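Morning. Coffee machine broken again, so started the prediction first thing and wrote up yesterday's gels while waiting. Chain of 227 residues, entered below exactly as on the submission form.
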Amino acid sequence: MATTADTTPTPDAPTSTSGFDLGGEEDSFLNPQRLRMIGIVAAVIIVLGGGIWFVNSAGNRKEAFAAQALESARNMAEQGNIGQAVQEFEKVTAQYGGTAAANEATLGIAQARLVAGQAELAIASLQDYLGTNPSDTYASPANGLLGTALENTGKYAEAETAYRKAAELAGVEYLKATLLLDAARAARLAGRTAEARATYEEIVEKYGDTAARTEAEVRLGEMTGGA
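Came back before lunch.
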């Protein structure tokens, strides 16, 4: 008697929701398809990790080169080669924009121009720089230099404002007090006696532990006749 073939349908091999075949001899989690996918993901991670390392490494190298160029420009300024120093500072700002050295080079340009008696040029460059909204670390000394340049050109009221802004942004008390002394001096030169006196009193009251207090008290004595 002939046997009939079992026509009972067999269930389809299960498939995963990700589309990977889970049947047959490849039912294990690490089937060839998954291994290929894992290999692709791993390769992407390696590439991304390498890219991050490269960016960080490149950034560190950029800062190092910028610092070397800045030091070279400073050495020229110290040797009295003001014109050449300004050119080197400008190269730092052009080639290494965004670095700490580039910010310091901008301040170096202003300092060099002040030494060379080019106050108006210093004012222009500092105002342009402050217009970029640098961090307080650089905005404070930039305002201090701007105050000096403005004072040198007889713009005493504007110098007072710049000095006071520098004091507000300074992160160290003795710098705040010193810059306030500058602001008070500029106020006196501008004929703003009341403002100068108030600033000296502020120094005595708030910064009594700094060396600026002594000068403030002397200036107050001059203004009040010792009263």
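Residues 137-227 form a domain with the Serine Threonine Protein Phosphatase 5, Tetratricopeptide repeat fold (CATH 1.25.40.10). Going to sketch it on the whiteboard this afternoon.
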